[in-house]
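Tip: read the tokens left to right.
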């Protein structure tokens, strides 16, 4: 009987936002595994006592990224963790998009501004654009601006730099307003399912406002072009590690072709509540990983 820990976050007095967690725990138990959910920062958990620690909804890590990555590395030295620590370290910093672009993967064009870098030349003057941190999740500290909101965007950048955060500036992918953002979910090396959602960032929404992370989420059948870009992104992950899970988020570029908005290798929502037919495949892959 494999022992599996699903690493999550501590919601405190609020219900957990992870709708998949009870479903996956039940499915693993029904398949004969001993599965528990534990907050990743719980000091009492003996992670080395599990055959596999599966990163699931560690959704509060982004403002504690150094602490989180150090925890992943410690756990990885005591037992198997998925995804591996090297992958987590690389993927927590969205400057990985530059690595993908250098490998020839089509990605949303991105400029980076570390604290102290001049912002003026980087902000587009002729199109809508997005500002967000390189460490972030759930559109936290992210906002969409029009060319006329230059000064507001500069204040946003200044606030992030005061927090020691490196900022990303991207042209707004207007294709998302037509075809949405498509999320291709892989598990055990295979395409599991795909979903589509509408734009998260709407004009006039402040960077520090809470966003709806997955508006109008619906099942999606990926096109051959989308699948090809997703597979290129996965093949470009440094050192070709074994990935138990991955989610590739795509939008259409100005030429109408799909490009990578994000490659989620740390704690992507699996959307099993939308794709219940995928529970069996996920369960099988997780138990297989625990038994290796």
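Filled-in amino acids:
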């Amino acid at each position: 009987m494999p022992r599996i820990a699903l690493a999550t976050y501590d919601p405190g007095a609020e219900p957990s936002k992870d709708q998949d967690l009870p479903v996956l725990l039940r499915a693993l138990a029904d398949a004969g595994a001993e599965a528990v959910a534990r907050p990743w920062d719980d000091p009492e958990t003996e992670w080395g006592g599990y055959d596999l620690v599966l990163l699931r909804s560690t959704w509060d890590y982004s403002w504690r990224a150094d602490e989180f990555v150090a925890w992943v590395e410690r756990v990885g030295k005591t037992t198997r963790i998925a995804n591996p620590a090297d992958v987590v370290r690389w993927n927590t910093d969205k400057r990985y998009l530059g690595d993908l672009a250098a490998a020839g993967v089509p990605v949303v064009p991105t400029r980076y501004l570390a604290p102290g870098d001049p912002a003026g030349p980087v902000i587009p003057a002729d199109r809508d654009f997005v500002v967000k941190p390189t460490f972030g999740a759930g559109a936290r500290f992210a906002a969409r601006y029009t060319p006329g909101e230059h000064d507001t965007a500069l204040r946003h950048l200044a606030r992030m730099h005061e927090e020691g955060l490196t900022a990303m500036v991207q042209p707004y992918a207007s294709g998302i307003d037509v075809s949405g953002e498509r999320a291709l979910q892989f598990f055990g090396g295979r395409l599991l399912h795909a979903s589509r959602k509408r734009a998260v960032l709407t004009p006039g929404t402040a960077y520090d406002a809470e966003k709806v992370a997955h508006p109008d989420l619906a099942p999606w059948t990926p096109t051959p072009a989308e699948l090809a870009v997703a597979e290129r992104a996965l093949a470009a992950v440094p050192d070709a590690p074994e990935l138990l899970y991955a989610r590739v988020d795509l939008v259409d570029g100005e030429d109408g072709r799909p490009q990578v908005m994000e490659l989620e290798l740390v704690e992507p929502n699996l959307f099993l509540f939308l794709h219940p037919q995928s529970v069996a495949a996920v369960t099988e892959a997780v138990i297989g990983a625990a038994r290796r």
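The mean pLDDT is 92. The two ends are 13 Å apart (CA to CA).
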